[in-house]
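Minutes, methods subgroup
Present: GH (chair), OT, SY

1. OT presented the first of two proteins processed in the latest run. Sequence and structure tokens recorded below as shown on screen.
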Amino acid sequence: MRVVMFGYQTWGHRTLQALLDSEHEVALVVTHPKSDHAYERIWSDSVADLATEHGVEVVIRDRPDDDELFQKLKEVAPDVIVATNWRTWIPPHIFTLPKHGTLNVHDSLLPAYAGFSPLIWALINDEKEVGVTAHMMDETLDAGDIVLQRAVPVGPRDTTADLFHKTLELFGPITVDGLAEIAKGRTDFTKQDRSKASFFHKRAEEDLRIDWTWEAEELDRLVRAQCAPYPSAFCYHRGKRLEIVEAEVSRARYGGTPGRIFYREGDGVAIVAGAEARRGRNHALLVKKVRTEDGRELAATEYFTHMGGYLTSRP
């Protein structure tokens, strides 16, 4: 089939490579300009560079809703559009232009985790598996009929970076296999159960802020979700920002006030956590590595020279 691809960052790069290696003809690539947004500097392999290397014409757009692009697409006359990690709304007159419509590839097990940063949100929420969905685009974001869906397990100590690499391996194969289903003339794809849908926003600074009333298990997942190369989860110590780089759940249970710098346990420092911590039934967040405002990365046992005092959510 003759394909136009809308894609961005490493997800788009991997998808484009699979299309270039397939039997399909990539007639045009549409991608976003480079961005200074913190999350868009991560996993930023260039779709434009890959297309250019293979002699495929590239169009750069923030939004694909102008007449010039529409006319270009009509001239190219694709059989299908493939969209992967496209960051802005694609209007109906574009996604319905090809005779086979538009196949969108999204890194969650839809209908759950539609929208942005699905792997981070899924890890924070203790999901047992994550995955990738290839679905037909319709007027509601990430809500179209499911062509294919593939899952991978979330390991007990996985970070978002681990989940990225696991799911990235699915993008190329699910795209090519999804196109094979479309090429067969299939249209009887699986309707999404909208009663199970959830839609998540982009991550921002406020989403990294540690709330010590969360249970230690939740905070452990937040720290793993905000692993390198993502911005780290943070709090404040003595009025200065302190990033929590590595942590786990304590073995012992600690009672008291959330945020209290309490006790050395093994190679970490136990910070009291949980809204019900006063009852003494909670595990603590065992902080193992921190990063200071000036960028120094230290073992928690080196940074916390004395026990006592508090870590807070705000200065």
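2. SY then presented the second protein from the same run.
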Amino acid sequence: MTEDNGSVRTLSVDIGGSGVKAMVLDITGKPLTERGRLETPHPATPEVVIGAIAVLAASQGEYHRVSVGFPGVVRCGVTETAVNLDASWRNFDLATALSEQLNKPVKVINDADMQGLGAITGKGVELVITLGTGFGSALFVDGKLVPNMEMGHHPFRKGKTYEEQLGRAALEKIGDKKWNKRLQKAIASLQRLFNYDCLYIGGGEAVRVNMNLPLNVKLIPNITGLLGGIALWRE
């Protein structure tokens, strides 16, 4: 790594159910490159996803370290669940495998947690939900992360989970109008559950949100998931 800390470049990677994205950030978290994207290969096994990240990394120029947002429970760089990818991710040491592939230090975190790190102010109770292939969630108290909450797999309504009711499959089945009504109910339910100061809504399908949001609810751009990558290296 370079001696001059100001020139440390971080490759930030966001693994999603439909796309794998990457960009290089400077030490302050500002993008230095255009976002690269590849369709998530299917079946999305660790080997092929790591291959896709390597292709993206090669097109992004110089970097010194890597941050990865992963759609599932992550503990110490090991992926424990991956509902929207492939069963072979269970207990897979992604941090080590990717570090060996790219020859750089790698940190891995849940994708919604990384999105949250890019969005929060660090004051009070802040909840982040991501609407994409699935339903991601991250909770922060005064800027401190409550890791691996995975609220998407908790019961929401009619015996179904948040993800079953609000994931991409549900959106495509019921259409924007009904989906927005469900989301409105989810927002009200989450407010009662967490009494959050602020709720941030991100992910690829956040562009389909069409309602008058409460004052303490904000839409965040999908790129926030990559911008949070710099926070993994802040000690």
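Chair's summary of item 2: The chain has a mean pLDDT of 94.
Next meeting: continue with the remaining queue.
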